[in-house]
Predict the structure.
Amino acid sequence: MNPEALVRPELDTGVPSGDLLLAFAAAIIGTDRKVLDSARTALADALGSAAVSGASAVAGNFSKNDRVANGIGIPVDDMVFNGTEDLREQLGLNDYKSAANTFRHLSGD
Amino acid sequence: MSFYADSDYPVRQDLADAHAAQFERFARAGTWGTAAQRLAVISEARQAGIDAGLLEAPADGGATSDVELPQPVRDVIRTLAVDCPNFDMSTYQAALDAGLSDPEFAEMVAIVSFIVNLDVYARGIGVELRPFAAPQPGNPSREIPVEAVLEQAFLPTIPNPPEGGALAKELYGPFKPYIMRALSIVPDEFRAHIELEQAQYVLLPKIMDFEYNHHEGLTRPQVEVVAGRVSAINDCFY
């Protein structure tokens, strides 16, 4: 999988029907219901009707986890943080406001 | 009958059951909030999503609460519900300034995160948001685990074993990453978080098995595309 496509969805994910999954993920947490309805239909046509529930479940779950992480202010675990410097830089993750929950421990603030 | 019997798309029974159970939990007293308070919190979160155009108002939203939340608390709930990228330490501090304790705040974060999850799911499969059940009588237990200590989050959490003691072993097994432990100051919300995780993402014993497919029609890399894109849009560094 090409992780850069997660932040630059015009890129190829390297995953079958990745473009449809990216579009559905954005639409399900977006404001345009017609776009969501189209994305849902396209996903079902490509991957089968059960995939709609699966993709919705994953999108909901990570909507939950993102709020738990930012709400409780947890830092990234060391085992993930260490060794991902290049990836974080490539994806621009260090610019996220929530990065402060990790970096405040590194700077000794 | 399935909780999502009106869906045009098939829904796994265990997933539907987990969601039905969570809606029932909302209607019961929690560890820190009464059922009426919890209903007020999730109602505010859902309304924030409707106001922001992220959710469609259901024809039948179900029960309403007679609890009037203080405006600063409503603001914190709304930030978490619809402006997750900008939720930071100052938002947490605003909650404390409004009079919430750490475990009260953690329970609030939990149930706001859960209702956003459940509403996103319903919208995804194209059904109306599920109605809220009427709040049941009962008092919060207000039990705080003595094992919880301030690690690196805004508020105390139960550390992994051995530091977290017998309770950590019971809750976590040998180890859990921070995202799983984040709500552990309120163990009942931790358990609900894990239950939803296993129904909706992957069975945790299978989390490192990238050949295991938890969702019909989706490979694990396809699951990660959805997960990663949602978290990127939410600017979640974790």
Observations:
- The radius of gyration of chain A is 16 Å.
- Chain A touches chain B through 68 residues (CB under 8 Å).
- Residues 50-72 of chain A form the longest helix (23 residues).
